[in-house]
Amino acid sequence: MANPMRRVALRNLMANKGRLVLTVLSVLLGTSFIAGSMVFTGTLSKAFDGISDKIAVGVDARVSPKNAQGQGGFGPAGPGVPLSVVDQIKAVPGVRVVVPAITGTIALRDGKGEVVSPTGAPQVGGAYLPPGENLDPDGLKLTSGRAPSGPNEMVLNESASERLDLPVGAKTTVVAPHSPGPIDVTIVGVYTISTDSGGYLGALFAKDEAQKLFGDGATAPYIEVGAASGTTPEQLRDALAQRLPDLNVQTGAEVRQQFEDTINQGLSFLNYFLVAFGLIGLLVGVFIIYNTFSMLVAQRLKELALLRAIGAGRSQVRNSVVLEALVVGIVGSALGLAVGIGLALLLRAGVTAAGAGFPDGGLAVSPAVVITVMVVGTVVTVVSALIPAVRASRVPPVAAMRAQDGGSAQSVMVRGAIGAALLLCSMALLFVATTEVGAGAAIVVGIAGFGLILAVVIGGPALVAPLLGGIGKVIAAPFGPAGRLGRTNVMRNPQRTTATAFALVIGVALVGVIGTLGASMQKSIDAQVDQGIRSDLVLQAPQLGMPPAALSAIKDVPGIGEKTVLYGVPVRIGGDRESTLAVDGAVTSVFNLTRVSGDMTLKAGGILVDDKTARERGWEVGAKVEPMSAVGGAKTTLTVTGIYEAKGGMLSGPVITAADMNTLYPPASGATAPIVTPQSVFVNAADGTPVSDLKERLREAVKPLLVVNVDDEQDLKDQAGQAITALMGVLYGLLGLAVVIAILGIVNTLALSVVERRREIGMLRAIGLIRAQVRRSIYLESMLIAIFGAALGLVLGVLLGVSLVHALRDQGLGSVVVPWSTVIVMLVASAFVGVGAAILPAIRAARTPPLAAIAEG
After folding, report:
1. Is there a smaller number of Cβ atoms within 10 Å at the N or the C end of the chain?
2. In CATH, 537-711 is 2.40.70
3. pTM, entire model
């Protein structure tokens, strides 16, 4: 009987092509996003691995500051290595050549005259080194033009030249960290480099000119060293480390490994992020698959009972269904893999077009990806089919021939009781989470969220009647008999209604969480700006760092009252690198500081610290602190004069005076620019000067510097809002994929429901129900299912979002905001989603031939 049952299963698949397409689609939806995320992150890893192999090629040792970040890759991070150590390095036995790095961030105009906006990829300038001076002579190759030789000449990497419309011969304007102002330059050459990427910008100048633009005359971001013949990189590293104990010395291989580790760490977050959404898609897909096979088995109960009646055993019936699922799982997983590869290709094209700095390269479809997707998709499909198959095989043939799959009231009550118990436990966990703060509390919120989802899955059928009973009558009333029929179809099978709506529950719940989190972040930032800053205007240059020329540019602007300059000063305290702020001016004139203890008036020799740092380091008012500069080792002794409350605003961490900063970073002999440059400038308008007028004057004064913004409080809020909007846009884009799954899941289930009810629809047509009424009943059924799913999802989403904001209070989220407008829009949109999802199934139902459908029964 095994072979005949196998033939029955396979012929049954081919005889019901529409049903086969729908079931394969459900598997495809459940696997494509996992495949897409794995292929995308694998592609990035492969591309960056290729780049890391080409970092510091030819370099035997690199000397960089201790505890500095960013030295393994493209550019510098704060004050670097004193140039005074170059002679010490040259004196170390085994040193062949010493090359101090000359590099820094740059800003310039594109071919249209617009300032190039940062994309997240490195945007740096530096010195063009000919092959004789470059430790890696094959790392950079001119493809057109020539090398720069004059003070106003520059070469540009090929991808940036094409992207920015700056070919050889084009003219542009650049601003560098130590340039006296904007500099007009001509592109004299275009080059290729192994580390090029979609958004990378590398502008190279003649060596002497680069030193003026990017060097301060006293330090270098890092120093690269070549070993003499007979000296290994490890021997050179050890010799340099012994001579330079206050600096970090690595071999070229260690630099490459550090770069690779940094990239992998960054990609791991992206990988977790994408896989999380892939798992959400898979979770939704599992329920779509399970619901699909549950309906198929219910629809085929009479067919399976007939097989049992003519001699097929339970295991044979069960195995025939599993065989069908196996075929569907293999085909659906293969198609899901193909679609996932397409999604990865589109995602890579999107981030490349946005200039996110990801390197170019082919897609990485590894055997592990193929195996994972095929195994997961096939196993999930078979398991999803096995449960209803076992249930069907246990139904006696005579009972199955008259069975109606609607779910007993007793089973709904049992599921409701289990769901209620899970709900109570999850709510208790949420209450515990809101009493704590930090990562642990956020994890508890996540566990509670999973519990709430299980509560909906198990107990959802018990909610159908309470939620849709009354509202269903109101919505169905205007549609007459068709409306009542649609409501009845929803109410009579609560298990199917819950399973159909589950995908939308997940999608809408995620929208609720992200929406609540985003609105709360925006409100919290607005509150921080309102409460933390007292100045009228803030000048800052987030793209490049404040050019020293900015202070000169605004010096004679009329209408300026109080002015306070803020510097970022990297120091070492007790061996740890600490980001410290130095203030030139009165702190309290531009910041609202909440006093914890001591005096908020900052004077030379004193230091203000926030209460969080004070607790961590055990500092009290009167404590002695001995910071050491990150360059040169200059020290000073400061006294804690005041402790202020940390609010997560613009002022945080230790604060010292500009005079003490100059003690730590005195002008070095031969320096051409200050080692520490301004971070931001806070300005108050003089009495009688409108802030708006001063704002326009300042903007006009700094306009030639390209990168300096002049912002008032509302501008700062808007900028923070844009960053949040960008983040939310990425999240909502990924959430959109989950919502697409939900919509297709509803379409899939309704289409199968129409097939299941074919005889019933035929009888309704036979007794006078016209096609338009059939379509309206399906539309209404789908609308009610969508509203049910959206309502549950929004309740879960808002509840989890509020709990998550409470758990993250220590991260500056002090305000809880529920986006009620989003809630209302989602509820209304869900109704339209339901109608849209029902169009094809409704048309198919309306075309059901009455007599043929009745005869099939």
Report:
1. C
2. yes
3. 0.64
